Amino acid sequence: MTLWNASEAAAATGGQATTDWQASGVSIDTRTLQPGDLFVALKAARDGHDFVAQALEKGASAALVTHVPDGVAADAPLLIVDDVQTALEALGRAARDRCKALVVGVTGSVGKTSTKEMLATILSDQGRTHASVASYNNHWGVPLTLARMPRDTEYAVIEIGMNHPGEIAPLARQARPHVALVTTVAAVHLEAFESVAGIAHEKAAIFDGLQAGGTAIVNADLDHTDILRTCAARHGAVIVDFGRTASDYRLIGVTQSPTDIHVTAEAMGQPFAFDVQSAGTHFAMNGLGALAACVALGVDLDAAIAGLAKWAPVTGRGVREVLTLPDNGQIELLDDSYNANPTSMAAALDVLAAAQGERRIAFLGDMKELGPKERAMHAGLADVPAMTQIDKVHCIGPLMRALHEALPEDKRGLWSETSAEMVQELPQLVRAGDAVLAKGSLSMALARIVDGLRKMGQVGALDA
């Protein structure tokens, strides 16, 4: 299937194609590039122009560049533009313009990737669905997702994130969603914001991109829900709320088992129930918001509930599994190693506290971008209610030293500067019968802990 040809891409970007080429995909990374992809030579940690020759050797159909790179023939298949990032954005806008898909945009301090995956799972049952890969939600991830969207897409799910003020609105205007969902607003990225209210204003900027008559899905239980509502109303959106205090999609109760949750709720006053294949009450709120968004897109609620039942978390975002040790003992592993902030950390500790292990062990890494109160926020984890049910906490990173010092002595495990150091101690820290959580910001590499635990045994499914 042809996604772009040379003339279409040149018209979209204002660039000059050196040859007549056709691309079946779009890539920014030679490590994952597939034959037929258009390689986009972005400048990030390294200049993508340095990898154009390699991309073409691996089968790229063409490369989006500002000049003919060294080692590349002048007659190579290229699309030459003034600026690669700007051209990628133009390509994304053109893909959005030519596609008649119903689009839902998702943002939030916590849960946006899981909610995006829930939406994609539900909507895939309804028609041809395109969604952001992994957490491609930033200034290059959103236009890349749009540029990859096939023209016959019927539903699209676009994740939109931010680290600093002013990032969400331009991305939302590129995506132009029919439905925009804010999962929650929490104390994340406080290095760049003076307050959580400032974060709420930034998250609310997703409504800047709403199509006329679009729907805003807002969490009713937040301290700053009014900010979301005000911004949505300013853009003329239909406002639908969800949560324990919501009037539209109200969460009534959550029953948790070791492997899943059963949720009771009301939609416009009518009772219904749904299941999520993951422990953790926070997934109930994500699921409820996803259902509300799908109904706003025209999906029948019962069909959406059936689709949601097929969703399961991805690696590093709440996956639970059993590790069988050489002596046939078992460890239950909760892999939530992809990211962390105070809200998601408390939610993960809740899941660990409810686990059935003989001991409940946590490996916690630094939470980044929390601003001047970061040490207090780390120390404050010692006081979350779930901590009373956790037997030992091992801390990783300079910020987590604050938690290590705040923990009562009987819960205080080891502290190390890095995950690599902690991995060496795993055989002495974990034993058969334990339930183990690994969680921290991505840069803290808690995935090393997860990998180390997996090497101790064989991975198996978690029985209900």
Automatic annotation (TrEMBL):
Domain Mur ligase C-terminal: residue ranges: 329-441
Residues that coordinate or bind ATP: 108-114
UniProt EC number: 6.3.2.10
All copies of domain Mur ligase central, residue ranges: 106-294
GO cellular component term, pick one: cytoplasm
Keywords: ATP-binding, Cell cycle, Cell division, Cell shape, Cell wall biogenesis/degradation, Cytoplasm, Ligase, Nucleotide-binding, Peptidoglycan synthesis
Transmembrane segments: none
Domain Mur ligase N-terminal catalytic span(s) in chain numbering: 24-94
Entry's Gene Ontology molecular function annotations: ATP binding; UDP-N-acetylmuramoyl-tripeptide-D-alanyl-D-alanine ligase activity; UDP-N-acetylmuramoylalanyl-D-glutamyl-2,6-diaminopimelate-D-alanyl-D-alanine ligase activity
First-listed, main subcellular location of the protein, grouped into a coarse class: cytoplasm
InterPro entries named among the record's database cross-references: Mur-like_cat_sf, Mur_ligase_C, Mur_ligase_C_dom_sf, Mur_ligase_cen, Mur_ligase_N, MurCDEF_CellWall_CoF430Synth, MurE/MurF_N, UDP-N-AcMur_synth
Protein's name according to its UniProt entry: UDP-N-acetylmuramoyl-tripeptide--D-alanyl-D-alanine ligase
Compartments, as annotated in UniProt: Cytoplasm
Highest taxon in the source lineage: Bacteria
Family stated for the protein in its record: Belongs to the MurCDEF family. MurF subfamily.
GO BP, sorted A to Z: cell division; cell wall organization; peptidoglycan biosynthetic process; regulation of cell shape
SUPFAM superfamilies according to UniProt: MurD-like peptide ligases, catalytic domain, MurD-like peptide ligases, peptide-binding domain, MurE/MurF N-terminal domain
Pathway: Cell wall biogenesis; peptidoglycan biosynthesis
UniProt-listed NCBIfam families: murF
Organism: Ruegeria arenilitoris
Entry-linked Gene3D superfamilies: Mur ligase, C-terminal domain, Mur-like, catalytic domain, MurE/MurF, N-terminal domain
This protein's record includes keyword Hydrolase: no
Cited function: Involved in cell wall formation. Catalyzes the final step in the synthesis of UDP-N-acetylmuramoyl-pentapeptide, the precursor of murein.
Catalytic activity: D-alanyl-D-alanine + UDP-N-acetyl-alpha-D-muramoyl-L-alanyl-gamma-D-glutamyl-meso-2,6-diaminopimelate + ATP = UDP-N-acetyl-alpha-D-muramoyl-L-alanyl-gamma-D-glutamyl-meso-2,6-diaminopimeloyl-D-alanyl-D-alanine + ADP + phosphate + H(+)
Gene: murF
